[in-house]
């Protein structure tokens, strides 16, 4: 299993944590260097989310046409190019375009790796493999922290180092993933049709809500700490590392879902995401670092849960289910990042985080049902 999982973790770390989420880590320094307003920062964050969302739209089609391996490698290549572009950016527009390119890989890689896992691992290892690969985001966040400490005043060199890591990860995946194992056997009946939307509507709604609620944290949490809570640069980076390290625990999502079911796992995750947003508004270090732990665990847990939820809807073509759930997540994040920037600019950081917490909490009422869309022979599962 680990022969497949370990390079998957590295590629998720590159495409998500390094290419997308590290922007929030470097945002205070980038804003100073390029004279960005909070609104412009929100637009750059949204550019990466929009790229992620658009990539998800094409993911299952590309995987079906070219197989999963080339799409995994394409994901690594766009992350590499985008991060080099961010390192070289000298104005808002160049940064936004580079962030868009860097964000593409995160949209392609999760569906592609879900197909790799389905066709490489035994049935009883698939949930475990998928959720552990998903923790790559957390491992990547842990990596970005020390890099930010080393290059706190030289964020451009930080992105150059991230690009070098992306190149090595590309080579590793190219060596490990065997193309002959990644051919899809999907039929037209296995693909998502709009007439089937009723069966997946709750998953789509839930993923959109969690994407919206989490977007403000990834983009503005560190800026909040330095601007409002008077955290030093080093303290805010340690906060980021704690968030990433805690997220590794989210790799237990597959085991917890098997133990208590999808429904209880989802509602527990929503509560912890909400708690992380509220705790960040409390002006005490203990509450702030507790917030980092809560968010790290819950975000990775929830994205792992959406992978499992999507594969249960599309058991024979998991890339379709993962693309759909992550597409909804990306829509929520795209809208949320832009809205967060406006709210912070017009109101305050505290108001914006509490408003996002309230919105996230409302999605706890979503139903959880995993009806396989590809066949009428499956029973409806409410777990």
From TrEMBL:
Q: Indicate yes or no for the key word Transferase.
A: no
What Gene Ontology terms describe what this protein does at the molecular function level? transmembrane transporter activity
Its keywords, alphabetically, are: Cell membrane, Membrane, Transmembrane, Transmembrane helix, Transport
Q: What stretches pass through the bilayer?
A: 43-63, 70-86, 92-110, 131-151, 157-177, 198-217, 237-257, 264-283, 289-309, 321-343, 349-366
Ranges where the Major facilitator superfamily (MFS) profile domain occurs: 5-375
Q: How does it sit in the membrane?
A: Multi-pass membrane protein
Query: Where does the record place it?
Result: Cell membrane
**One Gene Ontology CC term in the entry:** plasma membrane
Q: Which Pfam families match?
A: MFS_1
Reply yes or no: does the keyword Membrane apply. Answer: yes
Q: Determine the domain of life of the protein's source.
A: Bacteria
Say where the protein is mainly found.
Answer: membrane
Q: What is this protein called?
A: MFS transporter
Q: What is the lineage of its organism?
A: Bacteria, Bacillati, Bacillota, Bacilli, Bacillales
